[in-house]
Amino acid sequence: LNDTNPRSLIVRLCDVLSSLRIHGVVFEDDTRSEAVAQILDFISAQTSVPIIGINGGSAIVLTPKEKGSTFLQLGSSTEQQLQVIFEVLEEYDWTAFAVVTTLFPGYEDFVDYVEVLTDSSFIGWEHRGVLTLNLTDDPEGTRLRRQLREVSAQIRLLYCSREEAEAIFRAARDAGLAGPGYIWFVVGTNLGGSDQLPE
């Protein structure tokens, strides 16, 4: 299904489900839209047909899912990604870090989960604050570069969309914050794909 606008996706899936004896659906797309995952979750809950999302928007992990949904997504949640990152931070004794987010949906949950991980740990984490960026009214990135320079930690946990990550890394590179001595962990369920982030 190449057309992933909500109406055509629902109509096509319902046509397939009503015309064939299907025991399950394996779904792959090349979008990065969480809307695809939400639609598949809804269809699974309404039809009781198991759906497996393996790539693209269908693999963006949703929590919680619709009641009665049998929608399985092959991806890691933000919480799982953070748990792994904190294990790496602990392993290398990198205890001082800052959180950088945009207003991308889920950023408040991201910040809350970072606090849960640090507050419930016996490690002496030095959380140096949260910087929440609004990229919509800064097309040249001037304010963004200034704000990124104000973060005192060399280790930064970034939560944003893929497009926002590209702008943030361009600004960080221009500000001299993306080279040796700076470690960025990009967290999110929508950052996959074959394209690389800018160096």
TrEMBL record:
Ranges where the Receptor ligand binding region domain occurs: 33-187
Output the Gene Ontology cellular-component terms.
membrane
The protein's UniProt keywords, in alphabetical order, are: Membrane, Transmembrane, Transmembrane helix
Lineage top rank: taxon: Eukaryota
The record's subcellular location field reads: Membrane
Under InterPro entries, the record lists: ANF_lig-bd_rcpt (IPR001828), Peripla_BP_I (IPR028082)
Q: What is this protein called?
A: NMDE4 protein
- Which gene does this sequence derive from? Grin2d
